[in-house]
Amino acid sequence: MNNFPKSPGIRMAPSLLAADFTRLGEQVAMIEKGGAEVLHLDVMDGHFVPNLSYGVPIIESIREQSNMFFDTHLMIEEPQRYAESFVKAGSDLITFHIEVVNNPLAVVEHIRELGVSVGVSLNPTTPVSAIASIIDVVDLVLIMSIWPGFGGQKFMPEVLPKVAELKKLLGSHQRLEIDGGIGPESIGLAVEAGVDTLVAGTAIFRQPDPVAAMRHLHRLAVDAPGGDN
Ligand code: DX5
Ligand code: ZN
């Protein structure tokens, strides 16, 4: 496993949600062989978001064949109740949503005690002030640029000011990730605003050549203003 999110540089985080689930193993192997270091894993509970995806057994299975950094995005209520299962399944980073917790610091400490990196995510209309009590102690902040629940939605440029605001507040050891509607048209805007970690599902796995699509997106990100730092 690599040491993301602490190592510097722009990273693509392909979202498995858009993969062909009849060929999950092949798809994971293909994207890893193609150079992906991070795999974004979307867990949904049908409560916090109006959809269900996959959970522990799938993550456990792909862990057996992959060395990528597993970036697990919990779109669930009660993240503290399930975090340990997702760490045992092989997650390297657990990101929870600020909207579902009463005591965010306790959740951060719980996840950290499990021995993995900790991220916090904000829905499109959740202000940066919502994470004030934990901003200095998380490894990553994930900005949703769609309403979570489904892949294939349109990028919401109105979240970009929030990205720029966060970029100023975060230290160089912390990562800033964006999720939702990232593709050739939006990726440069996100990087210019300050993002260094870019989730993309549809724009990678739903393309005829996912590896070429990922490399192209990475190139666009690195070449965008601010992309080389
Ligand atoms: C949706 C998930 C996203 C999703 C992104 O709630 O959090 O990670 O896979 O999909 P695209 O890249 O298609 O917008
Ligand atoms: Zn996600």
The helix tally amounts to 8
General shape? globular
Q: Helix content range of the residues, please?
A: 25-40%
Q: What's the main sheet like? A: 8 strands, parallel
State the low-pLDDT regions, or none: none
Mean pLDDT: 96
Structural class, by secondary structure, is alpha/beta
What is the count of β-strands? Answer: 8
| Beta-strand proportion | 15-25%
List the ligand species.
D-xylitol-5-phosphate, zinc ion
Rg measurement, Å:
16 Å
Strand sequence of the main sheet, in spatial order? 1-8-7-6-5-4-3-2
Measured distance between first and last alpha carbons: 23 Å
Series of H and E elements = EHEHEHEHEEHEHEHH
Descriptive account of the structure:
With 229 residues, the protein is α/β, with parallel strands linked by helices. Helices cover 32% and strands 19% of the residues. The protein has helices at residues 24-33, 56-63, 79-88, 104-113, 160-169, 187-193, 202-205, 210-223, and strands at residues 11-14, 38-44, 69-75, 93-97, 117-122, 140-144, 175-179, 197-200. Strands 1-8-7-6-5-4-3-2 form an eight-stranded parallel beta sheet. Helix 6 (187-193) runs parallel beside helix 8. It is globular.
